[in-house]
């Protein structure tokens, strides 16, 4: 089986076999890494490191398996817009819930202690 | 490279094959955008609960089997690899190989669902469900727990000693767990149907290096399912 691009006459970019296998191996290695770091205590950075590894994996899948690296840039922009809006959604909602958490906690504590005081 | 001859593979409203291919792909990416936003609601629910109750998440994640979660990650990565390879094979006109690779992808998808089913049935058996479920052991009032479940669940003796509010929060953790993995599982099932349909079309001889859009778009969908699991795995199974 030869790996040249010349055999392909239709639209789209053909991934070299080496790159496909390399990406797959890298994804497996990162999975092993995230399991190992997940079992260690990383002084409060556990979540950040797990998310960093997941994002590297996601980037590999999107850029190579999903061909975004060679695709029309507009498809990549659509993907980035989706990620950007998820980020905004997340940031605003989490900031908002943090803002009101002391009130909610006060109310729940009150509810829990109620039956005892009656 | 517009052609005056009518190509049966080219829909009449496109100038050429390349424009047709790009348009189909563009449409798929817009659909994937809606899929990402669709899942984001549940990811935000997760973030809100975890940021407010990190102790609950740390405690509750011990009920999830990390080894099965990791195994499922590997199974999905393998299926993504074979799906990407199938696109390559289709581009090069290796139609026999396309069928085999899509077959491996579907087998992996079934494997994923089998492992998931094993996890779900274990959780059902032990009563590790959202608080509102009849079979759940995470009830605020311990008297409302089904005695049959309480009797055989190995976790009950520990769970019943927890503060009621904490127990309620674990129930919410499992609500989020089942919604996220359940919605993802539905996507895996849809992926299985799509890939089986692609296999059938491939065997029928519908695809050629000039026209393989369906395989390309099906693979894109399948990669998105993998992409979402890449985040779900550390968020649910690896909370230390």
For the structure shown, list the relevant keywords.
heterodimer, A: mainly alpha, 2 domains, 0% strand, disordered N terminus, B: 240 residues, 8 helices
In short, what is this structure?
Chain A is mainly alpha-helical. Helix content of chain A is 75%, strand content 0%. Chain A has helices spanning 17-39, 46-65, 73-117.
Explain this structure to me?
The complex is a heterodimer of chains A (118) and B (240). Chain A is mainly α. Chain A folds into two domains: 1-71; 72-118. Helix content of chain A is 75%, strand content 0%. Chain A has helices at 17-39, 46-65, 73-117. In chain A, helix 1 (17-39) packs antiparallel against helix 2 (46-65). Chain A is elongated, with a radius of gyration of 23 Å. The termini of chain A are far apart. Chain B is elongated. Chain B is built from eight helices and no strands. Chain B has helices at 17-52, 54-60, 66-91, 95-126, 147-152, 156-159, 164-204, 213-237. Chain B has one domain (17-237): Cytochrome c oxidase, subunit III, four-helix bundle (Four Helix Bundle (Hemerythrin (Met), subunit A)), CATH 1.20.120.80. The model of chain B has no long low-confidence stretch (mean pLDDT 93). Helices cover 74% and strands 0% of the residues of chain B. Chain B is mainly α and 240 residues long.
The ordered string of helix (H) and strand (E) elements of chain A is HHH
Helix content of chain A: over 70%
* Largest sheet data of chain B: none
- Principal-axis shape of chain B: elongated
Structural class of chain A: mainly alpha
Task: Fill in the CATH topology of chain B.
Answer: Four Helix Bundle (Hemerythrin (Met), subunit A)
**What percentage of the residues of chain A does DSSP assign to strands (E)?**
under 5%
Please compute the radius of gyration of chain A using only Cα atoms.
Answer: 23 Å
- What proportion of the residues of chain B is helical, as a percent range? over 70%
Q: Please identify the top-level CATH class of chain B.
A: Mainly Alpha
């Amino acid at each position: 089986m030869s790996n040249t691009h010349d055999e392909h006459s239709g639209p789209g970019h053909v991934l070299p076999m080496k790159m496909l296998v390399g990406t797959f191996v890298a994804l497996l290695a990162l999975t092993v890494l995230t399991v190992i770091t997940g079992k260690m205590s990383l002084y409060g950075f556990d979540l950040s490191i797990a998310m960093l590894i997941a994002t590297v994996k996601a980037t590999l899948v999107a850029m190579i398996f999903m061909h975004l690296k060679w695709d029309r840039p507009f498809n990549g922009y659509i993907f980035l817009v989706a990620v950007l809006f998820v980020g905004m959604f997340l940031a605003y909602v989490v900031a908002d819930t943090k803002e009101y958490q002391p009130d909610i906690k006060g109310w729940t504590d009150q509810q829990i202690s109620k039956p005892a005081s009656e | 490279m517009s052609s005056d001859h009518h190509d049966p593979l080219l829909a009449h409203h496109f100038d050429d094959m390349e424009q047709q291919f790009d348009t189909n792909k563009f449409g798929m990416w817009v659909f994937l955008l809606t899929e990402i936003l669709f899942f984001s609601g549940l990811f935000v629910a997760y973030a809100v609960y975890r940021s407010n109750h990190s102790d609950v998440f740390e405690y509750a994640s011990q009920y999830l089997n990390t080894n099965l979660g990791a195994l499922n990650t590997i199974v999905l990565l393998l299926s993504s690899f074979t799906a990407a390879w199938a696109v390559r094979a289709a581009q090069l006109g290796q139609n026999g190989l396309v069928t085999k690779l899509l077959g491996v992808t579907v087998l992996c998808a079934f494997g994923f669902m089998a492992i998931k089913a094993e996890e779900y049935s274990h959780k059902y058996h032990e009563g590790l469900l959202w608080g509102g479920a009849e079979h759940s052991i995470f009830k605020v009032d311990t008297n409302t727990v089904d005695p049959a479940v309480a009797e055989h669940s190995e976790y009950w003796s520990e769970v019943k000693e927890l503060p009621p509010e904490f127990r309620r929060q674990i129930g919410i953790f499992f609500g989020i767990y089942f919604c996220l993995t359940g919605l993802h599982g539905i996507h895996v099932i849809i992926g299985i149907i799509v890939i089986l349909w692609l296999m059938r079309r491939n065997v029928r001889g519908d695809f050629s290096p000039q026209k393989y859009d369906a395989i390309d778009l099906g693979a894109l969908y399948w990669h998105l399912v993998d992409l979402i699991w890449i985040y779900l795995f550390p968020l649910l199974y690896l909370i230390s």
